[in-house]
Amino acid sequence: MSHPNFINIQTAYVKAYHQNEYLAKQFERQEKLSEAEIGSGKELQRIKAEYLSNKSDMNGYAAQLKQLDLSLQRIQNGNLYDRIPVRSPIKGSVEAIDIQLGQFVEAQTSMFKIVNSEHVHADFMVFEKDVMHVKTGQKIEFTVSTSDEPLKAEIISVGKRFEEAPRAVHVHAEIEEKDFHLVAGMYIKGKIFTQSKQLKALPESAVITEDGKEYIFITMQNPELENDEFEFQLLEVKSGKKEGGWIAIELLEEMPDGALVVQNDAYYLIAEMLKRETEHSH
User: Fold this and answer.
1) Confidence check: pLDDT of 32 > 90
2) pTM score, two decimals?
3) CA 11/CA 102 separation, integer angstroms
4) Computed from CA positions of residues 15, 21, 25, 31, in that sequence, does the dihedral angle turn out positive or negative?
5) Are 216 and 266 in contact (CB under 8 A)?
6) 222: Cβ contacts below 8 Å, ≥ 6 apart
């Protein structure tokens, strides 16, 4: 940026700086004369007031120059800046330029938009009914709209006020993966782990529903023995929560020792079983 006012501030500072050196010596001289009862007390007061006033002006100009990120030592040597560099307070890339060359810029004018993609946080909205279960330190697993790869984060702050429509609070989280390419403004969806509890679980494809009841298939034969035929039997269970393709189960019957559970394609087995039962009934 450039403006005559920038030159005027630097010039005023240089004058005040050199004047300060002169007045400091004059003030010191008058103090010594006053101590020796040679000088005039009135003259000492005048020099002191002038010295302190000039020093205040010098410090004021210096504060303005520091806000502009200019070197005071360079200006003290008479090397004035004709252009002022605009420095970003953060590292990042320029996402938008809101001004044009030659434009007069007010103090409140937005000039550039800078985005720092090296340290991106995840921002979630948690609905009112779930807020009581959320706190700092909890882990989050989330995905971005451009990838199915799960990412992990940890909650670092929970908002203190509700947003309207929908009524929810902001939850900020520190992302653990630093090498994954994320762009500010991406849509993300996550799950917050509020508590941990060990449960028996199977893949969802292992549980079937028949006549309003839930079952799994088990076998007492070892598939590593390469048997030509397997014998399966149904075992009634009660299902619970689902998570990531897994479903919690509660055994309603005792499982025999050594039994193996069919984990995939249980519906094909029940279909084949019903088919054979139908054939035998003819």
Assistant:
1) no
2) 0.47
3) 24
4) positive
5) yes
6) 260
